[in-house]
Amino acid sequence: MHTPRGLPPSIAPGSAPARRLAAGTLAGARHAIDRVDDAVVALAGLRRRLVGAVQRSKRMAGLPVRDGEREAGVLSRARRVAARVAVPGDTADALMHALISDACRQQAQAGAAGDRFPRLPPMPFPLPAPPAAAAARLLRLLPPPRRWQPVLRHLPRASHAPLAARILGRALARLDPDTLEIVRDRRLGIAMDDLGLEWVFAWSDGRLQACHAPAEATVRGSATDLALLASRLEDADTLFFQRRLVLTGDIELGLTVRNLLDRLPWEDLPLAQRIVLQRGSRLLRAAREAHRNG
Prior knowledge:
56% helix
């Protein structure tokens, strides 16, 4: 019998363990989708408040409700964003057409009411809201990493450990191969405690490989702090001194690996990779601060 990709060979398709695994993954994924849907609707509400400000400005300036050039620009920009995040263009078109239609209907209804300064129905966002406060409210809609644990802990390790090894291996491949001989066949673990993920890697046969043997040394921390370290937005000394990262096991091996990472030529990494790392890390850090202050 063929075992589906990502399912451990010890779990037979259709068996009770497989059904339990599928049920847990399904429940976790649906929970995460619900939170994303909530955020989409909340953002649509915020957009309506901004449309209200646009409508009032148009009335004072004597401008028409529809602006064909502006709408074309909105659709074009949405298409460009969709292409970067692997969303079909027709999906982006349908979404933006719905939002544009809602905005036009909203403006027409407000104008028909005859109120020089029409008011919108109450929304879960205060009016007016300082830009920083509004940004913090939006960031709090982003689920913190611990909320993803129910989904991720049901994913077989074989489905994500090799991917993590490839991503990290591409960065390490920019070091001199002789430099990596000092850690050849040594096992280092990386644990993201809030996500419930833990991997063990070893440099062997000229590449980084995921392995199942216990780690000789492990770096533990939150997904956000590990991302900040990887993107060079915070240095290792600060993170370890503040106990935001913890090194367990063979301390000498851990320090050796840290020194190797410090020697990694950050400027040689592809520009796109550096942008994704730094922007993603900044977003995670800002979302964490918004949750702490909320």
